[in-house]
Structures are given as C-alpha cells and as structure tokens.
Amino acid sequence: MTMSAGSESTVLSSLGKGDGLHQQVLASFPLCDISEDDLTQNPQFCKLLATLSQHVDQTGLTVPLKTELDKAEQKLLNQRSHWLRSESLYKGLQEMIQDHCIRKHHVTVPPDQNMFYETMEKCLLVSQCIRRLDPSSNTNQDQPSVLGLTSQQVMELMPPEKNVKRMKQGLPLELEKHLKKKCLSLLTYYQPEWENESEGLKTIKLSHLRAQLDKEKKRAQSVKETCRENTVLLQRQMQLYLSELIKCIQLLQTLVLDHRLRIQTDLDRKKLDYFEGKLELVSQKIKTEMVEIQLDTYTTDSVSAHRKIREMLVSELKACQVEKQSIELKLASFKILGKEFETLAEEYCRLRQEIEMKNWALKEFTQYSTK
Q1: What is the pLDDT of residue 143?
Q2: What integer pLDDT is reported at residue 14 of this predicted model?
Q3: How many whole angstroms separate alpha carbon 277 and alpha carbon 140?
Q4: What's the CA gap between 216 and 209, in Å, rounded?
Q5: DSSP 141-201
Q6: Residue 269's CB: how many other CB atoms inside 10 A?
Q7: Which residue in 25, 47, 242, 322 has the most C-beta neighbors within 10 A?
Q8: Exposure string (b/e) for 230-248, b if CB count within 10 Å is 16 or more?
C-alpha cells in the first residue's frame, strides 16, 4: 500500500509536466482511441488514466491477472510441447512405415528389415486400438465398449515377443536416421544452396539451425512489434491530420461565407454584361439574316413586277370602292321605300329566275329539235 501510494503521488506530482504526462498516458494505453487534445481538455480523465496505468498493462489486464495468465500460458506451453513431442514421434513412426511400403514396391527389401517394419506397424495398430478402447485413464466414467472388445483381447494380436524385442532394439537407430533425414530436408528447404554440400557439413550447420531460426523468429517478432507501434503512431497522426483538416475546412467555409456576396455580385454583373453583348450580337445576326433572305427573295425584276401588280390592284380597289359607294346609295334609296318595295323586289327576283329557267329550257328544246 505504501509503494502504491508513493507511485500514485509520483504520478500526481508529474501532472504539471503537460506533454510528458500525455505521452506517457498515450503510451500506456495504445489501444484506446484517444488523442492528446482529449487529455488536454479533460485533465481529471488524464489523471485517472495516469493512476490506472500503474495497475494495468497495455492490454488492460491487472498485474495479478497478468501473472496468472502468464502461468497458465506457460503450463499450456509445457503440455503442448509434451503433446507435440509424442505426436511428432508417432507421425515419424507412421512416415517410416509409409516409406517402407513405398520402397518395397520398387526395390527388394531384406527379410529382417521387412519383419522389423511389419512388427512396428502391428504394435502401432494395437496401441492405437487400446487407446480407442480406453481414451483416458483419469476419467472414472464407464466408457462404452467398441464391438464388445477389451484391451486384453486386443493385446493378444501383438506380434511374438522376440520380434517385438528385436524391433525395440533397432528402433532408436532407425528413428534417428529418419529424423536426421527429415532435419536435413528441412535444412535444404531453409537454405537450398546447401543441398550439394557434404553430409558432415550439413550436420554441422544443422546444429546451428535452431539458433538461426530463433534469431529470425525474434527478428520477426521485433518487426511485428515495430509494425504495431507504427500502426498506433499512424492512427494518432491520422487523427491529428483529420482534426487539422477539419479546422482548415471550417476556415475555408468562413472565407466563402464572408466573401460570397461580393464575389457573387461581381460575377453576376459580368455575366449580365456578357449576356447583353451576346443578345446584341444575336439580334444583329438575325437582322443580317433577314436582309439576306429579302435580297435572295426579291430581285430587281420581281420588285418591278410586284410594283405593277400593286398599281393595278390599287386602281381596281379604287374602282370597287366607287362602285360600292354607288350601290350603297341605291340601297339606301331602296330602304326609304319600305316593306312594300321589298316585296316587289322579291317578286321581281322570282320572275327573273323563272324567265331564266324558261329561256334555258327553250334553248335546250330548240337545240334538240334542230338535231
């Protein structure tokens, strides 16, 4: 408690340092989406984060929980290593059996070697079946039997004891050869230019392969950590850039709002002058086109002919007007006589029509009778 109080007092005493404390808080919580401006505007929140950084790590875990997590990860790593060791040995034995099955189809295999691999294959099958029948010795639950078989019945399928003993004696040497072959293949894959070198030199380089792989793994982790730090730094710089960009946009909006009316007035006046000039130009062009059409339509001969026609029509118009006036005078005199004269006029028109019809019939009759 005394140490915690002392660390908190140290942190609180450094609150006046400003930028240094802000950078410390940002470095302690790289996964938080906060900026230095946020810490400046909220000093109490900055104080809380600075105090909290003494009790949690960068991932947000407390110190006791981090310790328990490290122990659990180490235990899991040990168990995983033990399982990988057993699994690698089992896969290696299976690969040896597969290689033998492929090899005996291409070359003649000695009988003792064939017996060795057959014995090893049977032992693996029996052990695998026993594991299936009893998957765990730590469970107290009753496991259902498979096909009614027991472990003792499966053990009866084991090869003869002498063959098993001979196989166990030669197994370490054969397994070492196989693993060495795989290691050399891995070395060749890691450095293809070493493929044509001697086996002794490959063995020496193989002894240094683990150190080289560990070195490259550490370098990859360092590069990964650097990339993570660069990513965090890039995110912060992106936030700063966006904030500055927003300020620039706001400044530009202010400039536009302040100067838009004056600029718009000048622009409208210039547009008005432009459209007035364009309208005048279009009007002059229309007048020019109309004159050209008239010149193309009315030649000298057509103008003189139209003039004569006009004089003739004017003279006829005057004559018609004089005749119209005389007829109007007669009609006026007829209207003075009243309705009786209108009846006589209608009777006169009817008699004229009958006379015309009879004259036409007489003419037609005379014409047919002459023929």
Answers
A1: 57
A2: 42
A3: 105
A4: 10
A5: SPPPPSTT--HHHHHTTSPPHHHHHHHHHHHHHHHHHHHHHHHHHHHHHH-GGGTTS-HHH
A6: 10
A7: 25
A8: eeeeeebeebeeeeeeeee
CA distance 69 to 81: 18
- Give the pLDDT confidence of 228-238 residue by residue, as tens digits: 888 888 888 88
Q: Are the beta carbons of 28 and 53 closer than 8 angstroms? A: yes
CA angle 329, 333, 335 (to 5 degrees): 115
Residue 7 has pLDDT above 90, yes or no: no
Please determine, for residue 281, whether its predicted confidence score (pLDDT) is greater than 90.
Answer: yes
Q: Find the angle CA(348)-CA(349)-CA(355) to the nearest 5 degrees.
A: 90
Q: Which residues contact 54 (CB under 8 A, 6 or more apart)?
A: 4, 7, 8, 11
- CA 55 vs. chain centroid, Å, equals 41
Distances (CA, A) of 53 to 10, 27, 59, 67: 12, 10, 11, 16
What distance lies between CA 147 and its chain's CA centroid? 56
Output the six-digit token pair for 164. 């098993």
Under DSSP, the state recorded for 58 is T
Tens-place pLDDT, residues 41-74: 777 877 877 777 777 776 667 778 888 888 999 9
Tokens of 69: 């997590």
Locate 184 and state its tokens.
């050399």
CA 96 – CA 175 distance, rounded (Å): 8
The span from the CA of 344 to the CA of 238, in Å, is 115
**Do 278 and 286 touch, CB atoms closer than 8 A?**
no
Q: Which residues contact 101 (CB under 8 A, 6 or more apart)?
A: none
pTM assigned to the model: 0.42
Q: Is the dihedral of CA 323, 326, 332, 336 positive or negative?
A: negative
Both structure tokens of 89:
């040995």
Among residues 190, 221, 229, which one has the least CA distance to residue 206?
A: 190
